[in-house]
Write a structure and sequence with these properties.
alpha/beta, 22% helix
Length: 117
């Protein structure tokens, strides 16, 4: 894509993490993302694994942050992987028009959701 095709589109997403190493371990274990280290306080991930480029920087998450929603072909297996990696389910699976989803905390201060048809 050229820069003009990217105009006003979300290009990068950055999370805060109270423990950058823990975030790296969690998201690589559960979702298979790969990371590049940029020192002890920052890691980045590429779209190939996550769907969009992004990173985690050391800091504390704030309440009311945007909710990032991931897709999973097997919702139950993803929930189990999150729990096995030390995550916590914050909103149990519920039905909505078009599918099912749940929310989770990654253990480093971020809440995300996962959905499936």
């Amino acid at each position: 894509m050229s820069n003009s095709e990217n105009n006003h589109k979300i290009n990068y997403i950055e999370f805060v993490s109270s423990d950058v190493a823990r975030s790296k371990q969690f998201y690589s274990t559960v979702f298979g993302w790969s990371f590049e280290d940029w020192g002890p306080d920052y890691i980045s991930f590429q779209a190939a694994g996550a769907g969009i480029d992004g990173g985690f920087r050391k800091g504390e998450a704030q309440a009311g942050s945007p909710l990032v929603v991931l897709y999973a072909t097997d919702l139950a297996a993803t929930e189990q992987a999150i729990l096995a990696a030390g995550g916590r389910i914050t909103v149990p699976t519920f039905k909505f028009p078009g599918g099912h989803r749940f929310h989770f905390n990654d253990g480093a201060g971020n809440e995300l959701a996962v959905w499936s048809e």
